[in-house]
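Researcher: Good morning. I'm working through a list of sequences from a screen, and I'd like to move beyond sequence-only analysis. For each chain I'm collecting a predicted structure so we can compare shapes side by side. This is the next one on the list. No need for commentary yet; just the structure.
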Amino acid sequence: DPPRFSSGTEINESVLGTGFWHLGEWVHSPVDTRKDEADRFDNMIDVMSKTFLGMTVACARCHDHKFDAISARDYYALSGFLQGSHFRLVPFETIEAHRKMAGRLAAIDDAYDSRLQAVSPGRIDRDHPTSDGSDGTIETGQISDGGFRTLVNYACVRPDEYLQDGFIFGQRPRRRGEWVALRNGADGFFQMPFDAAMNDPFWDPVVNHVQTSPTSMGAFHPEAAAGRTLLTPTLELSSGHLFCLVAGAGQIFAVVDSHRLLAGPLHRETLVQVTPQDGDTVHGDDGCQWPARWVEMRIPRYIGNRVHLEFTPSPRWRFAVLKVVESASGAAPPPESFSRVVDSTRHAESVAPVLEQWCAERQRLAEEMPTRSALAMAMVDGTGEDDRILVRGNASNPGEVVARRFLEALDGPDPLQIDSGSGRLELANRLTDRSNPLLARVLVNRIWHHLMGRGIVATTDDFGVLGQSPTHPQLLDHLATYFLENGQSMKRLIRYIVLSSSYQMVDAVDPAAAAVDPSNSLWHHKPPRRLQAEVVRDTLLAVSGELDLTLYGPSIPVHVTDFMDGRGKPTAQGPLDGAGRRSIYLATRRNFLSPFLQAFDAPTPFSTMGRRNVSNVPAQALILMNDPLVAQLSEQWAARAIRERPDGVTQRLTWMFEAAFARPPHDHERALAENFLNSRAAEQSLGFNDPSIWADLAHVLINTKEFIFLR
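Model: Good morning. Structure tokens for this chain:
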């Protein structure tokens, strides 16, 4: 299926959904990378299975589930889909436009290369062997003592193993003798002296917009590699002595067990900078004799671990990758030499006009290309892998391999048919298939929960044995069927529910019904609901007139009080009122959570929470009474009331009650408010329009139960 685009644009919104996999806990430089990966996958599977299936699949990491029909094999079958997936920052605003550009660019380059090969006197044999008479291939397979094995060779890589994040390395490796661009301009073309994957200067103008973040990925900077990275297939290290045959300048990163957060010296050997050497040039002055050299990466501590390499060119430099080999002894492979590609035809009469035309056509295409995009977390496919069962969940005790598949209780024991890649697409297709009895029911139950205050299944994240049974199973089936038959539209389902008599019930309690159903499980009335933490804060901003309804934009940094301390305390902090932005735009830092939001049961951001706690504790009254934000917004609400209703007390009180409670004051409330204002004015010898006495009244209204409850 095609991705979903933002209305009227080519902004890919679908790819943003893959970022939810990474919204969990990550650890900088763990000692045991395999255990760290197992813990991260545990969190990912836990969130995914609760969210879409209402099942606690992560309970089967160490053993078969004690209560539900979920085995350890089910857990590790799902883990395999994550083994073949990698973290990336995706330029989602331009990725689809660049995808089309890449196809057009490849067609242009292939056409002009064919013309040049036809007209160039002294045409080059693309299958020409290396100068030592061999075909350049090192023995592939198991490593032998004192020998080498080829991990990837871009002279003969399969199409499904030519992996990259972005498009700068083209749709395939470049072949020896093929005309390519080393830099932009008619004099920037040359003939490849070897088979290699190489980035194209066409993409050099592309710039990613990076939002400043208080956190760091450590020594590895994914924003610099976003959309500019070549990935090798995943492999298991035998000796840990890797050698990469490369030319040009760039960065090589060995991603061990999907670990990326390099802080301090630990694991720093997985990152190697390849600097230019004599003969390397981005200008291609002698590009036909561009030297390739072996770059060493010694990572023997990771023997037996899963690794893939990522190659990222330095800005404005070409980076050619020929092959990667592993050495048994640690000795470097023999130097590789290549026959000189005689480039005497560059200025030949038959070649020069073709190069001019080629350059002009590439330039016209470049003028159509969007060059700037914001970045977002997402996933990119790697090599398809099946995971091993970890005996008792111990990463140091792997067992048998389990093929990737869906839960056996829902889909049988057979593996999914996966053509290539991680298989996440096949898993998503199976998960959303209409024959899956859980997805639609879990989703409509969540919507019912958010609209009504309690789900038909109260345990929204657990439809299993330990979860609660549905109070209205036929209603749950009906809503799930309605959802599926109406295009799986959430908007239609919400409209259907809110127009029902169930949603429109009042909170009046029938004594006869309460005697039969005191807990209101059968919904004979609609109980009052306390506002969620974020809604309480947004309501304060709204009544004060300080709420900024601007959509999108960067997160607002956390406001750190003097009483908040801990590891990683930010040096710069956000404003007390969060710049007036809605709570959804406030940055969240696990070590510095908002005390105001926590008081009203905002969940700690460590795992999924389909049903929030709803408490009634003294801390809530205390924070509404004493919090500096509440005091500040009370003053601003009072100033707004005086400004917008200057004509009299009655009109001003009515306006304030309508703003706070969506109703005018009752007669006794109006009398109490007027008495309060009179007494405060008399006590402080102030005029009746003084903002301070109205700020006190605003503070009183905020501290009423009706302000934070919805009836």
